[in-house]
Amino acid sequence: MNHVGDGPGSAARAAAGPALYVHVPFCAVPCPYCHFSKEHVSGAAVERWLAALELEAIRWAPAARGIAFRSLFFGGGTPSALSPRHFQRAWDTVTRHLELAPDAEVTLEANPETVKPGLLDAWAQAGVNRLSMGAQSFVPEELAALGRIHDHEKPGQAIALARAHGFERLSVDLMFGYPGHRIDHWRHTLDAALALRPEHVSAYGYIPEHDTPMGDAVARGERRTVSPECEAEMHAIADQRFIAAGLAPYETSNWSRPGAECRHNLAYWLRRDYLALGPSAHALWRGERSANARALADWADRLERGADPAVERERETPESRADETLMLGLRLASGLDLDDLPAEVRAEFEARYAEPLAAGVAGARLERTRHGWCIPAAQRYVADDTIAWLAVRARPLAGAERAA
Q1: Are 199 and 349 in contact, with CB atoms under 8 Å apart?
Q2: Average pLDDT of the chain?
Q3: pLDDT value at position 1?
Q4: What are the residue ranges of helices labelled H in 168-311?
Q5: Which CATH code fits 10-269?
Q6: Taking 80 as the threshold, does the pLDDT of residue 387 lie above it?
Q7: Cβ–Cβ contacts within 10 Å for residue 123, how many?
Q8: In whole angstroms, how far apart are CA 7 and each of 65, 249, 332, 335, 374?
Q9: What is the share, in percent, of the chain residues with pLDDT greater than 70?
Q10: Which strands form 170-176's sheet, in the order they lie side by side?
Q11: What is the pLDDT averaged over residues 186-195?
């Protein structure tokens, strides 16, 4: 049986998608572990980004005509590095060409040291109603090793200030398993994060990324991540602490209070349509995946020339849809629900995976739910193993099964 409270619930699933993402690539100081598209913030770079953002919004507008987006997510980079004036221009650009639903969830990622009264006012006045605060750790020496420029008290101060400005949906981002991380420090970070009473917490295991200072040091053997067993224990400790504090698990790396799931990220996990603007942004729209040029200069140059900003475009196939449905759906704590799938996708999925799923249940790799399957809670952190086991047993689709 599932944990009591495992999510996402039916209301959160129904509210997810279509979604809109805006990548803000600016950082005051790039973190040594981060592989996202990022640039040093400067007036000239921001102006170019804003101009190109409008060109891209104009390109997408015909495809999105008549669509009211249920969520908008400003990610980065450090979106909170934008001045109030520049953020307002970005907001005006997006909402001039693309429509938001009246009850849209609007999230902005913020670094604690950037949160100021003027910015909070600008965000609130524009329509931002959810903040995702990048804390990562509450241990001073770890913050220094991670290249963070805020101290261990700043996240709490930023959250208190945000609440004073009327923000009621606040999320804290944490990371674990990086070089030098210790379980006692992790317990301290969890306690400090929960003391802030966030509505949502994300806790991600560190992944060494190529072309990042920390990731390259790991590859050279100069730094060591924690062992897989220690990383799994850290995840289990976080899960226990969050559940005890009233934050239910709803995805491998995400926990929330009832009704506070991140609607935007659920659109990704449920494979709802989403558009994406900005350098390196990825979209899934009407059965096609696209990936924008990674660097700000390349992305902006393409748009300025009237060219496609995407460097990759790929039509989905029945097999790729079914495989992604499995991979993403089984990351959800309450599992993959057939009722979430359009009829055509459901038929493809069942044709490809009916036998592997039955074998997974028989072998205790999976549990049957009312309308689908989930990974047992004790095995959730190693979900990729089960997903790979199922994928190698998938049946090729042919003939009438290939409805696409």
Answers
A1: no
A2: 92
A3: 40
A4: 183-195, 213-219, 228-244, 263-269, 296-304
A5: 3.80.30.20
A6: yes
A7: 28
A8: 32, 6, 7, 8, 11
A9: 94
A10: 248-251, 254-256, 200-205, 170-176, 130-136, 99-110, 68-76, 19-24, 274-277, 282-285, 288-292, 310-315
A11: 97
Among 203, 216, 195, 295, smallest CA distance to 32 is for 216
Q: Cα angle at 396 between 395 and 398, to 5 degrees?
A: 130
Spatial separation of the C-alpha atoms in residues 215 and 234, rounded to whole Å: 20
Burial grade of 172 (CB within 10 A; 0-12, 13-18, 19 or more) = buried
Q: What is the pLDDT of residues 222-261, one digit of tens each?
A: 998 999 999 999 999 999 999 999 999 999 999 999 999 9
Rounded Cα gap, residues 180 and 397, in angstroms: 47
DSSP 349-363: HHHHHHHHHHHHHHT
Per-domain residue ranges of the chain: 10-269, 318-401
8 Å CB contact between 96 and 57: yes
Please state whether beta strands 288-292 and 39-40 pair in parallel, antiparallel, or not at all (unpaired).
unpaired
Backbone angles phi, psi at 158, to 5 degrees: -65, -40
Report whether pLDDT(27) > 90.
Answer: no
The pair of three-digit structure tokens given for residue 395, joined into one six-digit string: 């049946």
Q: How far is CA 193 from the centre of its chain?
A: 19
| Mean pLDDT for the stretch of residues 127-132 | 96
**In the chain, what is the greatest distance between 2 CA atoms, to the nearest angstrom?**
61
Rounded to whole angstroms, the Cα distance separating 9 from 130 reads 19
Q: What is the pLDDT confidence band of residue 203, given thresholds at 50, 70 and 90? A: very high
CA distance 21 to 327: 21
Tell me the residue type at 381.
Y
Name the least confident of 23-37, 48-62, 134-148, 155-169: 23-37
Residue 162 parent element (H or E): helix 154-164
Q: Where are the beta strands (DSSP E) in 129-252?
A: 130-136, 170-176, 200-205, 248-251
**What amino acid occupies position 324?**
E
Contacts with 11 (C-beta within 8 Å, 6 or more apart), sequence order? 259
Sign of CA dihedral 225, 32, 383, 348: negative
Residue linked to tokens 């913020």 = 110
